[in-house]
Write a structure and sequence with these properties.
alpha+beta, 10-stranded antiparallel β-sheet, 8 helices, elongated
């Protein structure tokens, strides 16, 4: 039983991301000299991104590099060089627009676009795009209201009280706390009322590796649904995580230097 059930088509929709290099013409058909002549802004941006990720830390602000001023060939080049990594997602914004997020093949380097508007597309260096952290804080409720439990409920009220207490007490820098529903004696009525109480938030992130991990912001600040699926898309671990953006969605500190080295190698292969 899943607290936050999800259909396979929803997983696919979140994974669609920005439509990376596989859907684009291949600028690598040009040689390095031609690329340097036709894509000077893209090349300068890639060097800047490589320098930024080499010095990036998990506990400092992210760094943004706007690509709305690049021409079509330059944007295709950026897409090809960065590629598509395992994590993608969407953030629902108050205006009704949607921010699309795509991790590159280099952990800690992301592409973000506000819907399909190329003028609002950028590359971001950091553990997670800032728009995710801001939405998790600004677009969720600071308190969890607990109503009367429905008939047939068994253990949901004390679980909700624990979630509320932990969520309101959590501060940046504190360890996240995990509630594992696989181990809790809760019946379907409990799970349905819990989901109704915390609600759905503005963020959905999907990480696909050997299996799938789905990270959802709930409607309550500092409360996340984190679920793991096997290769058959059957849920194998269903949890709520109380804290900041879950670790399953974050680039690790050690990823930054590795990504900087790999990007430098890619730049040399393309342009030098």
């Amino acid at each position: 039983m899943s607290v936050f059930p999800i259909a396979a088509e929803s997983l696919d929709a979140a994974h669609s991301g920005l439509g990376g290099a596989r859907a684009l013409a291949n600028p690598a058909a040009l040689n390095g000299i031609e690329l340097a002549r036709n894509c000077p802004n893209a090349i300068a941006l890639l060097y800047s991104v490589a320098a930024a990720v080499a010095g990036q830390k998990s506990d400092v602000p992210t760094q943004l590099f706007r690509i709305g001023n690049l021409n079509d060939l330059e944007r295709r080049l950026i897409a090809e060089v960065l590629g598509e990594g395992e994590l993608s997602g969407v953030v629902a914004l108050p205006s009704g627009r949607v921010a699309q997020i795509q991790e590159s093949v280099l952990a800690g380097i992301w592409r973000v676009r506000i819907e399909t508007d190329a003028a609002h597309e950028y590359v971001e260096v950091g553990a997670i795009p800032e728009i995710v952290r801001r939405a998790a804080t600004d677009l969720t409720s600071s308190d969890l209201l607990i109503g009367a439990a429905p008939d047939g409920a068994m253990n949901v009220l004390p679980v909700l009280a624990e979630i509320r207490e932990r969520a309101m007490a959590w501060q940046p820098g504190m360890r996240s706390q995990i509630i594992n529903f696989t181990l809790l004696p809760m019946n379907p009525v409990d799970l349905a009322f819990l989901q109704q109480s915390v609600g759905n938030g503005p963020i959905q992130l999907i990480s696909r590796g050997y299996g799938t991990c789905r990270v959802l912001a709930t409607g309550i600040r500092n409360v996340w649904s984190v679920q793991f699926f096997n290769a058959m898309d059957s849920i194998i671990l269903d949890t709520l995580e109380v804290g900041g953006v879950p670790m399953a969605a974050l680039a690790a500190e050690e990823d930054f230097w590795v990504s900087a080295e790999r990007l430098q190698e890619i730049i040399k292969a393309y342009f030098e």
